[in-house]
Amino acid sequence: MKLLFERSVAGRKQTIFPDLDVPEATFDETLIRQSAPRLPQMAEVDLGRHYTELAKQTHGVNDGFYPLGSCTMKYNPRVNEQVAALPGFADIHPLQPEETVQGCLGAMHELEGMLAEICGMDAMTLQPAAGAHGEYTGLLLIRAHHLANGDTGRTKIIVPDSAHGTNPASAVMAGFTVVSVPSDAQGGVDLDALRAAVGPDTAGLMLTNPNTLGLFDPNIVEICQIIHEAGGLCYYDGANLNAVMGHARPGDMGFDCVHVNLHKTFSTPHGGGGPGSGPVGCKAFLAPYLPNPRVVERPDGTLAFSCDEQSVGKVRSFYGNFLVAVRALAYILTLGREGIPEASASAVLNANYLAHFLSEAGYVLPYGERCMHEFVIDVGPLKAETGVSAMDVAKRLLDFGVHPPTMYFPLIVHEALMAEPTETESRETLDEFVGLMTGILKEAHEDGERLHSAPFTCPIGRPDEVKAARKPHVRYEFDEEG
To answer: What CATH number corresponds to the domain at position 238?
Structure first.
């Protein structure tokens, strides 16, 4: 499709502005640009058609099945949007006096309390704007704790090889050195390797549980004990909290701090790289280091912002993505104490349902059919037999209006497809997905060569993946006249 600049026609306009009815503002000549900005010039109908065409070429949860493993692409209930659009939430300014936004402070305070209860923590901050941002913030708490105790030699963070890729990146950004530990044959942390890795230089451990293989580590309590006995702290990556919320709490497992993804577990929008939200919770001994300011309740019952001298400082402008937090609060209040565990149980049920029938269809599940919220398919044996790779299977799914599972992750399964159906998908949708995957398996054995060219019906076919990543063309080049 054409870009807006390619559709532009000089002199074409959309709207005739009314006569000026306010005093005209003037500016110093040094502040006024010497040439008009190069903006597309279009009629309103052409602009509307452009964005409608763009919308038709996107795919989201509202368009079809989106089993993107580790991303928890669940449906976002409309009631969340209605609550976030209430004037008392939508029409405020972050610099208003505290006494004029008591309802907003109350919403933040209530959400922090609920998230703390769900995670087994004592305190929360809503500032971090994404999961990785939450990881970084949690690691700053760990770093501040060790420095406050004069423990300057604790410079290493232990990260399992099945971790999210952002874990080691966040640790390095926070000033730590990363030590990777391998998984055992069952897909959990290798305890012997973990014991060998800890020492007086251990600052902490970053762990996702259930992990990226969709497995709940049966040794989770012992893992935390090993780290604590070495003097380190335990950080819980809450990306997979949707599998256990209401049933198991990170704080009860032994973790000292945690981030949660509101845009995953608590049904707020993912957006195109945002708006996200990655609140961080911690035990009481880490609370003084949480980012400033925090919402506190005064003796008279009113709410206010408070700052702590030991804080790591702000990590986000103002107080985080507030309206995203409001959506999450609406979701939690809608589900209630009974609905939260029911949602996670349904997510686990759906994943096990898919895993079972895909295994029966002939796909290889390297860690068995039993899983938590997600599972990994190993397309390696199929590739060895037919030449069809995980990429080929994923691309073929696009022809049927299904977003493919996560590809080539976790890295410990070389031809991995990681699928997460979430709790919001019906049995009929799951059965249709099994049917599609079974059909692709048949195609692979009958004419595997053809699948190397999939997808066949999408606006864009099979791009050069390396060139698209290394040499993206993201800027419009104007001609001499433009």
So the answer is: 3.40.640.10
CA–chain centroid gap for 80, Å, is 18
Give the integer Cα–Cα distance in Å for 443 and 475. 39
Domain match, 228 and 376 both: no
Domain match, 329 and 358 both:
no
Strand pairing partners for 204?
A: 157, 233
CA atoms of 416 and 376, how far apart (whole Å):
6
The CATH number covering residue 411 comes to 3.90.1150.10
DSSP summary character for residue 130: S
Question: 389 and 294 in one domain?
Answer: no
Residues 24-82 have pLDDT tens digits of 988 998 999 988 888 899 999 999 999 999 988 888 888 999 999 988 999 999 999 99
Total of domains in the chain: 2
Q: Are residues 312 and 386 in the same domain?
A: no
Is residue 164 a contact partner of residue 239, using CB atoms and an 8 Å limit?
A: yes
Q: Are 373 and 355 in contact (CB under 8 A)?
A: no
What pLDDT digit, counting tens, does each position of 320-357 carry?
999 999 999 999 999 999 999 999 999 999 999 999 99
CA distance 410 to 165: 9
Separation CA 60–CA 54 (nearest Å): 13
pLDDT in tens, 111-135: 999 999 999 999 999 999 999 999 9
Domain's final residue, options 312, 334, 356:
334
Q: Is the dihedral of CA 172, 178, 182, 186 positive or negative?
A: negative
Backbone angles phi, psi at 438, to 5 degrees: -65, -40
At 176-195, the pLDDT tens digits run 999 999 999 999 999 999 99
Same domain for 349 and 289, yes or no, is no
Show the domain range for 412: 337-465
pTM: 0.91
User: Which residue blocks in 85-165 are alpha helix, DSSP H?
Assistant: 87-90, 102-119, 131-148
